[in-house]
Design goal:
Number of helices of chain B: 9
Largest interface: A-B, 24 and 19 residues
CATH superfamily of chain B: Vaccinia Virus protein VP39
Structural class of chain B: alpha/beta
Strand content of chain A: 15-25%
CATH superfamily of the largest domain in chain A: Alpha/Beta hydrolase fold, catalytic domain
Number of domains of chain B: 1
Structural class of chain A: alpha/beta
Helix content of chain B: 25-40%
Number of domains of chain A: 2
Number of strands of chain A: 14
Order of helices and strands of chain A: HEEEEEHHEEEEEHEHEHHHHHHEHEHH
Oligomer: heterodimer
CATH topology of the largest domain in chain A: Rossmann fold
Strand content of chain B: 15-25%
Distance between the termini of chain A: 31 Å
Shape of chain A: globular
Distance between the termini of chain B: 46 Å
Helix content of chain A: 25-40%
Amino acid sequence: MNIEEITGKKNNIGIVEQKIFSFEGITLDSGIFFGPIDVAYETYGKLNEDHSNAILVCHALTGDEHLAGYHKEDLDAIIAEQDPIQKKRLVRKLAGWWDDMIGPGKPFDTDKYFVIGSNVLTGCHGTTGPSSIDPKTGKPYGLRFPIVTMCDMVKVQKKLCEHLGIEKLFCVVGGSYGGMHVLDWTVHYPDCVELAIIIASTAQVSPQAMAFDEISRRAIMNDPYFNHGDYYGQDKQPNYGTQTARMIGHMQYLSPEAMQLKWGRKLQDKDKPDYSWDCVEYEVESYLNYQGKIFTERKFDANSYLYITKAMDYFDAKHDFSSLAKAFKATKAKFLCISFSTDWLFPTPEVKSFVKALRRAGKDVAYTEIETDKGHDAFLLEFDTLSKLVKNYIEKNGDI
Amino acid sequence: MDNFNSERFFTDTYKYLLNYIEPNTKVIDLGCGTGNLMELLEKDKNCKVQGIEIESPLVQKCVNKGLFVYNGDIMEGITDFQNKRFDYAVLSNVLQALDKPKEVLEEALRVGKKVIVSFPNFGSLKVRLKLLFSGKMPVTKELPYTWYDTPNIHFFTVFDFKDLCKEMNIEILDELYLTKTGNDFRRLHIFPNIRGDFAVFVVKRELPIEE
């Protein structure tokens, strides 16, 4: 099959497949041993002889291990689609979420590097999470799944790397939620990372972000169909709450400037308001409703959302240390850190605060703020600037 | 303001700055622009170099060269460093563009064992004559900006700088004066401090002994 002919995309990695690594489990931060654990992952490119060219990509809040290329069945669906507009939509939707960054000749060049994506512990894309079957009961865990921290998630990623025969990662990269994983890697596995790339992230979630997380969780848990987390197999799913949580998320990812530019106060397909509860009045409402709807359509698990945001709230990179600089003291990694000027979820001062701690710890850090009106979403939108920085950083500072 | 132009113009002075820097040393470039001097220090002198630069697009040029630069204000970025952490702190053609040049100089002396300062001499004969005869703020090759649109907000002469050194108990280890002829900067030997368009100082100050 010629991928370029089917998708119109150049240098696409092509057909990829999800793999599962199963192991006995880990002792969690909370002290309990949890297992067995399945990890869903994908890999791109080839691991070199001395296993020194591996790049781990840590996904964002609701992301997954499918970073680039297409799954076979998705490609078949694209081929089968006759409507050109629908086809285009599928090409975009079914590609891995960082397809532009990973592939032959791309910034994470799969001709040179071995790239790994893995779904986080508590996720719902193949890795063990609250929607997985508890072997003890034969039923989904639901809220009986233990509370998990970022460190636990990274511990699972480390297990996967060991399974793949990788002692030291050439590079660990992540934006937003994934950036916290990268920071945790450098703190808890100081000898295992050569280059760290952290984009629009934080070393400690702010009370404001925690507040939005709690509101999102309340929306889910107060949904009439939530049923204490045991909604699996029910006719009605806790979709209202999950959609609301997603809407809160999307609002955080946009800057006020971007919202003004995108919609302003424009009404949705009409000249004057209807003064009614039965319709959408403004374009901004329509956008958020749409984002909520597609989130439940892709069957993102409501319990996973609870666990994932909970882990984020607990995250504090200096957790086991007296200061952030001390937490970073041992790491041998070099750092590239990036913030976006209009990001108010993980704003520049928050990025600067861990950058400054890294500098106090004597680390090599390149830090820059990208000027943009796109807010936190810039992580996926400011492709040109970002890809150039990432490509040059790993080429010039890595020994491959 | 057009920092790019000015940086290219003054790149020719870098070879004189480089002469003062021992190989294999640690250097911080304060206001490093697009990182041209940092690159030379890494390549020619095998120095371990860091930079601080406030303008994001310039920092991104540095990152694209593989350099380690902090995007922010010099005063904000320099506080992270311990005393005498660097063999050299460099203030290349930057002091006159700062809000608080004296405070930055203080900090440079704190983190650097030696500080290399270069700046356009606003007291050169050329400038003095222009001001005298035209009665207007001089616009020259070295100072190509109009008064209302210039990155240079604190003009000073070599005599002013020497006064400041005296006031701050700074020891001057070396000084040299350059003039631009054609495309190149040339070192002056006769009445250099009056004829020089551009000055380079190597200075140092020991840390005060704490009681």
